[in-house]
């Protein structure tokens, strides 16, 4: 039995140095790149999976929205490979660390909110008040929606951490 | 006349035991040298086991098995205490067992329970 329940989620060390960096970089070895059109089975399978998720995500967006596809697909692949590798016995999953999930959630969330505020200010502010709200409730609802907006990155990070830790 | 290959150009499996220290000293230990060594070993493994026509699952499986072994070795000091043992002592992982005296302890005077 562990000394405490979370001992197995402690960050690994090699001779006192943090070993989290090589473990985070390890999934990149499993995803080789190729300069040829027709590749071996591993690369073909991976490309097929990537195109499947890309089509599901990006068909609903316009040309400008599709500029986000590289970042989103690389994020999906990173999280998927690290979580799947965490299923192996004794392996360390970086996404169990709240620090890592916050580091992924906050910049992406801030980027989307800032982009929305900059390009479509009126529409972004209009989202803070749902349609059909009774007039006396308007001030309270705006405050509630603002709070829920700022809680979003915390919710994103904690959701992933808790699910993978479980 | 046989040509003598310098130690620097020999592969590791061709180097004799006596020449091993001098061979190690000829290696490039700069960051670019180490990075080049990782890259060469990666592509050697990749071209031998993965980038072949009749590829099997063994190429990826060997990598994952090595990763599991590596992950087991990292927290070995903590995992050592969780091994299966025939006998367990309470707190055996934290403190050494207290030495017990080899002779029997003298009998203590019984308390007089009537004295209250």
Structure description:
The complex is a heterodimer of chains A (about 170) and B (about 120). Chain A has six helices and two strands, in the order ββαααααα. Chain A is mainly alpha-helical and about 170 residues long. Chain A has a two-stranded antiparallel sheet with strand order 1-2. In chain A, strand 1 and strand 2 form a beta hairpin. In chain A, helix 4 packs antiparallel against helix 6. Chain B has four helices and no strands. The mean pLDDT of chain B is about 70. At the A-B interface, strand 1 of A face helix 2 and helix 3 of B.
In short:
The complex is a heterodimer of chains A (166) and B (116). Chain A is mainly alpha-helical and 166 residues long. Chain A is 58% helix and 2% strand.
This entry's quaternary arrangement is heterodimer
Uncertain runs of chain B: none
Q: State the low-pLDDT regions of chain A, or none.
A: none
- DSSP helix fraction of chain A: 55-70%
Cα-based radius of gyration of chain B, to the nearest Å = 31 Å
Largest interface: A-B, 23 and 19 residues
Distance between the termini of chain B: 110 Å
Strand order of the largest sheet of chain A: 1-2
Mean of residue pLDDT of chain A?
Answer: 84
Q: Helical content of chain B, roughly?
A: 40-55%
> How much strand content do the residues of chain A show?
under 5%
Q: Would you report the number of β strands of chain B?
A: 0
Number of discrete helical segments of chain B: 4
Radius of gyration of chain A over alpha carbons?
Answer: 21 Å
Number of helices of chain A: 6
Mean pLDDT of chain B: 72
Q: How many domain units of chain A? A: 2
Tell me the structural class of chain A: mainly alpha
Biggest sheet character of chain B:
none
Q: Characterize the overall form of chain B.
A: elongated
